[in-house]
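dude i think i finally got it to work??
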Amino acid sequence: MNKSATFEECREVVDTVELDKKSVNVDCSEFIEKKFSDNTFGERLRKSRIELGISISDVADLCGVTKSIISGYELNRYYPSKEILMLMSSKFDMSYLCIEGYTKVVYNFDKFLYKLNLWIKENNFTKEDAANKLGISRGLFRFWFNGCVIKISTYNKIKDNLKKYKLI
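look at this
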């Protein structure tokens, strides 16, 4: 016989396990705390999914991908596309999931482009000037303006410049 109860107000998780016909309470909170951290998109996705009682299979079905892809998101091995993030928005709080970093840029790419355009106009930059300040090629810069989302490797390469100019 196994029973679990979560007490949110004191953040304890107690499992009652029957051993040799005796009930024993086990405090598992230290393991749960690590399990439910929310420092990354993947950790926030996993925490939200578990809190909502949604399985990895359910999320995979919702997004039209395999369970291993969703597991990869949760383990921060992969990052979802804007299309996948939009599908997730029907079940999850995206302002929590995409609170910072790469997924915030991807999910809010239209806002990112708006801020980028505004920054260019306010500073009288050419697109070449802006690309140089950000540390990217003009071709990639044009790629963004044609609606293509930045890649994680590019984001990681230039995120300090994006922060410096308050674009993220």
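Residues 2-33 form one domain.
im so relieved honestly
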